[in-house]
Amino acid sequence: MSSHAPSPSAETEGEGSPAALFAPPGQHIFLSPHADDVAFSCAGLLATPTAAGAARRQLVTVFLSGPDADRRRAEDQTVAKLLGCDYRCLELPDAPDRPEVHNGLDHFMPYGPPHLGIANEIVHRLLPRLTPPLTLYAPLAVGGHIDHRIVHEAARALAYHIGPALRLMFYEDLPYALCPYSLARRLSALGDGSPRATERGRPGDEQSAYRRWLLSMPLIGDRLPGLRTLVAHRVAQVALRADQQPARARPGFTPRLTSHVYPLSPPAGLEEQVIAAYASQCPLFATSTQDLTRQLASYGQKVGEQHGKVASRYQRLWQEHGAYGPTPHRS
Ligand SMILES: [Zn+2]
User: Fold this and answer.
1) Exposed/middle/buried for 26, CB within 10 Å: 0-12, 13-18, 19+?
2) Which of the two residues, 220 and 72, has the higher pLDDT score?
3) Which of 63 and 107 is assigned the larger pLDDT?
4) I need a labelling partner for 54 at 20 to 30 A (CA). Which of 6, 81, 136, 258 fits?
5) SS3 34
6) Centre of ligand 1 from the C-alpha of residue 301, in Å
């Protein structure tokens, strides 16, 4: 069901090549809210061989804390090596270790004043290390997780500070984007007018889709069936509420997105190796590494089908043009 007419000016899914994407000089920095987000969302792209294979690519994980931090950092370092990236971790406190987050449901809340401090901390730590020209890849923040929203907004702030010499690209967060309607809901909240933003359902249908998606994953745990359903119902409720924050209600300039798709041709087995490296996370999202690899690959096929290419896998990125302000800021 469609609730938004596509904007006639919206540029939709222009095709580019991974080689052209990585050709511009300077750093290519992939911001990952948590260890695993970039790998789950962009491994196929990073693993696709290109003539610009020597481009300086860096994986930066933002939030890492808690008793598993050492293990998760080591997993991340292994994956960065597999994907040909330098690695850096900002070691900022994960949602459960921050004061504004009181329980699991608070992982899904609209971005706002309680998060300006931590978003500013990300900007403060990264800004001195960014040398323009550069391309920054950040989460579109599909799925409503507050840590993803914070990194998304910090990336916008970095673009504003540096100006157009920072090319800002958003990737679709996996596995969240596997949940039906979630991409369209996020794009609608950002005020996007492309056909992808129109793939909405009735509110009740969107909420049950989110609940069913949560219940399909082992992360809900081995609670009694009634309790599993209740937890999934509450999480779906708060996640959808966080996703409904309209673009005008968030701090910052109005987003202006255009989408680009890139064909993927990673070496056989590499993505499965990458996903297997996150052994601490694999049991959360799927029953096996193979199953998760299959699900993530199926998303790339869906993007291909949306682009009219059956049986090909694609990565979609959203380039942000609005973060520089009404008049592009020049440093
Ligand atoms: Zn994450």
Assistant:
1) middle
2) 72
3) 63
4) 258
5) coil
6) 22
The string of DSSP codes covering 97-133 is GSTT--SGGGGS----GGGHHHHHHHHHHHGGG--SS
Which residues does residue 23 pair with via DSSP β-bridges, in sequence order? none
Question: Would you say 94 and 34 are in contact if contact means Cβ atoms under 8 Å apart?
Answer: yes
Report how far ligand 1's centroid is from the alpha carbon of 163 (Å).
27
CA 330 to ligand 1 center in whole angstroms:
32
Q: Is the bond into 203 cis (omega within 30 degrees of 0)?
A: no
Which one of 52-66, 165-179, 231-245 scores highest in mean pLDDT? 165-179
**Tens digits of residue pLDDT in 289-321:** 999 999 999 999 999 999 888 879 999 999 999
CA of 284 from ligand 1 middle (Å) equals 12
Q: Is the peptide bond before 49 cis (omega within 30 degrees of 0)?
A: no
Q: In the chain, where are the structural domains located?
A: 14-320
> Which CATH fold would you assign to the domain 14-320?
Rossmann fold (3.40.50)
pTM of this prediction exceeds 0.85? yes
- Backbone angle region of 115, left / alpha / beta, with phi > 0 → left and psi within -120 to 50 → alpha: alpha
SS3 199: coil
> Interhelix angle for 289-306 vs 37-47, to 10°?
60
d(CA 298, CA 313): 8
CA of residue 51 to ligand 1 center, whole Å: 30
Return d(Cα 307, Cα 41) in angstroms, integer: 18
Give the CA radius of gyration of the chain: 19
209 CA to centre of ligand 1 in angstroms? 20
**Which range, 13-17, 263-267, 279-283, has the best average confidence (pLDDT)?**
263-267
94 Cα to the center of ligand 1, angstroms: 10
Dist. CA 93 → ligand 1 center (Å): 13
* Both structure tokens of 101: 């987050």
Instruction: Identify residue 232 by its one-letter amino acid code.
Output: A
